[in-house]
Amino acid sequence: MAPSLTLNELSLQYGADKVLDNINLELGSGQIHLFVGPNGGGKTSLLKSVLGLTPFRGDIEIHGEYRIGYVPQKAQFEASLPLSVMDFMLLSQSRRPLFWFQHSKHKAKAMEQLETLGMAERAQRRMGQLSGGEQQRVLFAQALLDNPNLMILDEPTTGMDQQGIKVIDELITAQLNKGITMLAVHHDLGAIAKLPDPKIHLINRRYQGSLSPEQLSQMQFVHHSQEA
Ligand SMILES: Nc1ncnc2c1ncn2[C@@H]1O[C@H](COP(=O)(O)OP(=O)(O)OP(=O)(O)O)[C@@H](O)[C@H]1O
């Protein structure tokens, strides 16, 4: 069973700036939990707290065994960085040195995920030479490698073309159909409306309540896609 999470009095402050203020939330297993709200409202900070990437106060409990797959908001790879797409995929599969892992089994697994994301032909390209949308696809492929049961997605379709958005949205639905738990920041109302039973949590420093997709569509900060 995929993990559930409990946020207990989660607070986070950068200097004097209180970004998250006493958030209490139960996040059920096998569901997609979407965090929505205005820019600067603390959505990314909440995801980073769950990932242990930023210090916070309060407790975050993850119940059950979990394997996390994380797709960050945006990646930046220098064009000159001598790191190929395949290197990047293999690197994130293990903490051991890269050269130990030029093993065909690992490569085949990495290639399979790249294929799922339509990136197999780009495997030998440098990460920094890919477009932003292509980098997002590779990051998503990498997040799927260890068969995660908790995925954390921070605006996974940012900078993508329509085809890329479709691929990612279909993968998100496929993962949910497998029963995994997802936490996501996602702005596209059209995509959200198609998700199976999305739990939508409004965050603006404080927890402001849950919304239905219809209620969300009334909010000022929402991006309406053509399909919405
Ligand atoms: N490392 C940091 N140091 C200082 N301030 C930060 C840091 N990270 C974020 N902030 C500030 O914290 C606030 C919340 O940022 P956060 O990225 O969590 O918001 P968000 O809801 O994800 O915003 P957006 O919708 O624009 O992505 C912002 O005012 C931001 O400037």
TrEMBL record:
Gene Ontology terms, MF aspect: ATP binding; ATP hydrolysis activity
All residue ranges annotated as the ABC transporter domain in the record: 5-228
Alphabetic keyword roster: ATP-binding, Nucleotide-binding, Transport
Pfam assignment, any one: ABC_tran
SUPFAM superfamilies linked: P-loop containing nucleoside triphosphate hydrolases (SSF52540)
SMART domains for the chain: AAA
Domain of life: Bacteria
Name by which UniProt lists this protein: Metal ABC transporter ATP-binding protein
Protein's organism: Ferrimonas lipolytica
